[in-house]
Amino acid sequence: MAGKEKAGRRQPAARRRTDGSRTRIVSKEPIHEQILPHIRRDIVLNRWAPDERLPEMELCEEFGVSRTPLRDVLKILEVEGLVMLVPHIGAVVTPLNPPDLAEKLEAMSGLEQISAMKVAELQPPAALREIKRVHKAMEEAARNGQTSKYYALNDEFHRAVVLGSGNSTIAKMHETVMWHVSRARNYANEREPLNQSAAEHHDAIVDALEKGDPEGAARAMRNHLAEVIANVLDRVTAPTSRATDQEMEDTAA
């Protein structure tokens, strides 16, 4: 049995399609490494809400795996801070804690400001082309009211700036913190309609990058993210505030 499990670790994981059939993901990595990015992405996209328990049996069926590799995934997600492993309950998605989130948003802002400065200074042709391509696509998505597409492109835009810096350490740090930031952004954006001028906020960033103005690029990124951070924190904390107000009204009544 142990030998069978060991051999199975390197078999391809499978995920159910909408028609009920399964499709291969990859074929070389251990099973838990194959399914980890998919479950992480689902958490970031708020398939499961904060404080919601992950359905282990459903996930095993979805990916065509046993509980052993799934639990290996859940342990990694716990280390990353995306789930809590609660005795007798299982894996629960971590809550969006405003103080912790504020720290991560601040770290994201710092990393992206440094990256913008580096891109403006180095002027990497491929990176600048990619940044402008994504920016144009964002503008089109905003004009067409394609909310989900716009926010996916938004993440792509900021990631392109970070990768354009050419600093692998910054890129790795940014990737880790963005799992949490993107989850909060997606949660907040679900409660806010897309502003048609949203993509325009990135104009100043692109302009400074093209002009080779490091200080201007950092300033434009800082100003943009200050507004983003304020909006995300406000929307994440608003439901709690409203609930507290209602409780106070009920108590007074």
TrEMBL record:
Domain HTH gntR-type: 29-96
UniProt keyword Oxidoreductase, yes or no: no
Gene Ontology molecular function terms on file: DNA binding; DNA-binding transcription factor activity
PROSITE patterns noted in UniProt: HTH_GNTR
Highest taxon in the source lineage: Bacteria
Keyword vocabulary terms for this entry: DNA-binding, Transcription, Transcription regulation
Keyword DNA-binding in annotation: yes
Ranges for region Disordered: 1-24
Listed Pfam families: FCD (PF07729), GntR (PF00392)
Name of the featured protein: GntR family transcriptional regulator
Provenance organism: Nitratireductor indicus C115
Higher taxonomy: Bacteria, Pseudomonadati, Pseudomonadota, Alphaproteobacteria, Hyphomicrobiales
